[in-house]
Amino acid sequence: MQLNEHSALERLAVLGMDDLPVIAYTPQKCSLDKDWFKKYCVLRREFLESLTDSFEEIAFMNLPQEEFINLVMGKTLPENLSIRFRIPLLWGGELDISNMFLCLTFPHAYNMDRFIIEQNDAKTIYLPNPEKKVYLTSHIGGGGPGGNATSDRLTESVFNAISGRGNE
Questions:
Q1: Which stretches does DSSP call E strand in 1-123?
Q2: Tens digit of pLDDT for each residue in 24-48?
Q3: Cα 108 to Cα 133: distance, rounded to the nearest angstrom
Q4: What is the C-alpha separation between 108 and 137, in angstroms, rounded?
Q5: 3-state secondary structure of 123
Q6: C-alpha distance from residue 72 to each of 31, 35, 51, 83, 146 (Å)
């Protein structure tokens, strides 16, 4: 189905992602280098390590402390989290950190896939394009004006783990 920007945003709202921006893109069939997966594995780790500037968003994912630390240190990707490409590699997307974002696998990645597949016969496809490296709907994130003690504790714990300090 061919969407326009307005109908694409309406469809995302039905899927529970009413705050997710989109980009219009005309898919270009591309082939991948033979060693693309090896490059992706290196890039994936670099992307996870780059999440140190996304503590607040990750804190709202309510991960256990160890998973939180392992995530931002680039060690492991916790269950139910997905790394997605803004523009798929097979459609001409770059194997680059700027083309990646993190989101919950269910329901977000699942619903993003539904949204894209529904447009399979369209000339112009609207692709999810969150503003930040970590996508959470505004229904999950936020916190109140009083702050978020969990976020503060996690930020302090991660800082201590990265800097080599113990719990002082």
A1: 22-25, 81-85, 100-104
A2: 999 998 999 999 999 999 999 999 9
A3: 14
A4: 9
A5: coil
A6: 31, 26, 5, 13, 25
